[in-house]
């Protein structure tokens, strides 16, 4: 089963590695972003099946990725 994925990771090296792993296993990465604000925008733009996100991300480097995921889940209950 192939999934459409939006990936959020603030480390460029880790982000590129994760994109490689996901695509190698047949998934389509619709967007790979580096902060929580971009994550929210990418999900709204691409309507993915799943989000893979880092918890600690810019802009505050606290739990921004987690808060974005919770907000996105409220907007998109099947995400």
Q: What is the topological layout?
A:
Blueprint: E1 4-8, H1 12-24, E2 28-33, H2 36-46, E3 50-53, H3 64-75
Parallel strand pairs: 1-2, 1-3
* Residues in helix, %: 40-55%
Strand residue percentage: 15-25%
**Overall pLDDT confidence:** 96
**Sheet with the most strands?**
3 strands, parallel
Coarse shape? globular
Overall SS class: alpha/beta
- The parts where pLDDT drops under 50 for at least 5 residues are none
Taking strands numbered 1, 2, ... along the chain, how are they ordered across the largest sheet?
A: 2-1-3
Mind telling me the C-alpha Rg? Answer: 12 Å
What pattern of helices and strands is seen along the backbone? EHEHEH
* Record field, number of beta strands: 3
Q: What's the total helix number?
A: 3
Distance between the termini: 16 Å
Features:
single chain; 79 residues; alpha/beta; three-stranded parallel beta sheet; 3 strands; 46% helix; globular
